[in-house]
């Protein structure tokens, strides 16, 4: 089952809109919800992406798959998996801090986000400046 680009954009827009509406209601103190409930649309969207990524990675385990054809592709998928897990760690730490479940410093809460941004900058630099030598 494949989703078209329009369907993916619509799904992304829908989950973002739902998250922002819930966030505004929480910040305006119209809804006394838990911060973990506010982030549910983000986590549902991330779960969908993680499942799709894991299914694509598991497709390499099929019989008859030549591993030499997609080593770069597999490295990219592993980076996407790490990025998703870092984003999940940041969201969980942020919700725990906002809900006052922990007395962790805010700088520690942002460590996963900083690692994600640093990794994204390294990947961007690699994709821009890497010259293949065949």
From TrEMBL:
Alphabetical UniProt keywords: Membrane, Transmembrane, Transmembrane helix
Listed transmembrane segments: 36-58, 78-100, 106-129
Domain of life where this protein originates: Eukaryota
UniProt keyword Transit peptide present: no
Protein name: TMM60 protein
Originating organism: Calcarius ornatus (Chestnut-collared longspur)
